[in-house]
Amino acid sequence: MADAAKAFEFSFTGIDGSPMPLARFKGGPVLVVNTASQCGFTPQYRELQSLWEKYRGSGLTVIAVPSNDFGHQEPGSNEEIKQFCEKNYRVDFPLAAKEKVSGGDAHPFYQWAANEVGEGAAPSWNFHKYLIGPYGELAGAYPSQVKPLDRAITDDIERLLATSKP
Fold first, then answer.
1. CA separation (Å) from 111 to 4, 22, 91, 95, 121?
2. 85 catalytic per annotation
3. Which of 39, 117, 121, 146 is catalytic?
4. Are 73 and 38 in contact (CB under 8 A)?
5. Residue 98, CA distances (Å) to 17, 31, 64 in order
6. Which residues of 13-34 are buried (b: 16+ CB within 10 A; e: fewer)?
7. Does the reported pTM lie above 0.85?
8. Burial of 163 (0-12, 13-18, 19+ CB in 10 A)
9. DSSP state for residue 23 in the 8-state scheme
10. Pairing of strands 11-13, 30-35
């Protein structure tokens, strides 16, 4: 059997249109979150920014992947999404361009992640979180209700940071 795909084999497009290969973040954990600007969970942007500020110096990357898949709660353009995140939550972590994150036409990263954890742990709403380990392995999946600063996430991040490349 061939080696399983790793997260770092995938690439997003940045919200500004530039390439965002996940391989750029090798060596540290990466939290990938599908987001939406008009969702009851949208205030989680504040905790995502706090998480980023707390751990980025140690090697964590947070990536938001806006999606209009659930409840049509991300109708804006990439520029509108970027402005919303910066103005309302002072987000300065990487933002991907808007993507499909569920179903057969989901972004390849999301298809891979759903295959890794099973469809039951695939995104079923906005602000679903995947934690990628420093070597590209899927290290955690957290539903929308689990806030970014929840111990379930921060403990996993700290464990990964302890095993990451210096």
1. 13, 15, 26, 19, 12
2. no
3. 39
4. yes
5. 10, 17, 9
6. ebbeeeebebeebbebbbbbbb
7. yes
8. exposed
9. G
10. unpaired
Longest distance between any two alpha carbons in the chain, whole Å: 48
139/142 Cα distance (integer angstroms): 10
Please name each of the domains of the chain with its CATH number: 28-163 (3.40.30.10)
Render each residue's pLDDT in the chain as its tens digit; 166 residues. 234 569 999 999 999 999 999 999 999 999 999 999 999 999 999 999 999 999 999 999 999 999 999 999 999 999 999 999 999 999 999 999 999 999 999 999 999 999 988 877 789 999 999 999 999 999 999 999 999 999 999 999 999 999 876 5
